[in-house]
Specification:
Layout lengths: L4 E10 L2 E8 L5 H13 L4 H11 L3 H13 L5 H14 L3 H16 L9 H14 L3 H16 L5 H17 L3 H18 L5 H16 L3 H16 L1
Antiparallel strand pairs: 1-2
Helix pairs in contact: 2-3, 2-4, 3-4, 4-5, 5-6, 6-7, 7-8, 8-9, 9-10, 10-11
Protein name: Tetratricopeptide repeat protein
Pfam families: TPR_12
InterPro entries: TPR-like_helical_dom_sf (IPR011990), TPR_rpt (IPR019734)
Length: 237
């Protein structure tokens, strides 16, 4: 990682020209160091695959997609690694049909190698469910979420599996309009994440946003606003 700055004051000095004051962070910045160390753990593997994964986490889907297309041409046996990243890139770009193709392609390839109940497949089933949900195919989406949940409930011996299971349970509850159950699952996931992740981690922001959405559906508008504002502050940090 090269120089990292915090954004300080932003002000418009004339029409179309803005002045932004930046403050250089040091390697001993505790907040930055904790986030960086966590990202290193979350993005393992060869550098050629770590770079597009980091770009996806930063929301730079176009750049990640360009790299992934180059990698796919010479992937060989590593094609199974690239399809999950491609589907995430297309999903972030709201290209649901292409994302769904890569999700299903990745699932087909994975099923030739792994057991049908391998915990690594849960994320794929859940992601397919999310895309189907956005396309309005709620019954089919619910089936994929429930399949993901079945896999994860067989193995809750680590925090990531437990968090994922709670998130999937919350999504399934939301699709069935059981918002109180969805809220409870999101809050359990937040409690686990808060003990594991730095406050600036984007996954925490997503969970706060989900909690806010559940509160809104239940008519708890003040709580919904508080959680959405917390999610926004994390996204800005």
């Amino acid at each position: 990682m090269y120089s990292v700055f915090r954004i300080g004051e932003i002000r418009q000095i004339e029409n179309g020209i803005w002045q932004i004051k930046l403050k250089l962070t040091a390697d001993n910045d505790p907040q930055l160091r904790r986030l960086t160390e966590r990202m290193r753990k979350e993005i393992p593997g060869p550098t050629r695959y770590r770079i597009p994964q980091l770009m996806l986490k930063m929301g730079l889907s176009d750049q990640a997609l360009n790299i992934l297309k180059i990698l796919l041409k010479n992937s060989g046996k590593e094609e199974m690694i690239i399809h999950p990243l491609l589907r995430l890139a297309y999903n972030d770009m709201e290209n649901g049909d292409v994302a769904l193709f890569h999700f299903r392609q990745g699932l087909s390839l994975a099923l030739t190698v792994w057991s049908p109940d391998d915990h690594a497949l849960a994320a794929t089933y859940s992601n397919i469910g999310c895309v189907l949900e956005t396309k309005g195919h709620l019954d089919e989406a619910l089936k994929h979420h429930q399949r993901a949940l079945e896999i994860l409930l067989k193995r809750q011996d680590s925090e990531p599996e437990l968090i994922a299971a709670k998130h999937i349970l919350a999504v399934s509850s939301t699709l069935q309009d059981r918002f109180a159950e969805a809220l409870a699952s999101h809050e359990i996931a937040l409690h686990i994440q808060s003990e594991q992740l730095p406050f600036t981690h984007p996954e925490l922001g997503k969970t706060y946003a989900n909690i806010g959405t559940s509160h809104y559906a239940l008519g708890h508008y003040s709580a919904a606003l508080d959680n959405q504002m917390t999610a926004l502050s994390i996204q800005k940090s």
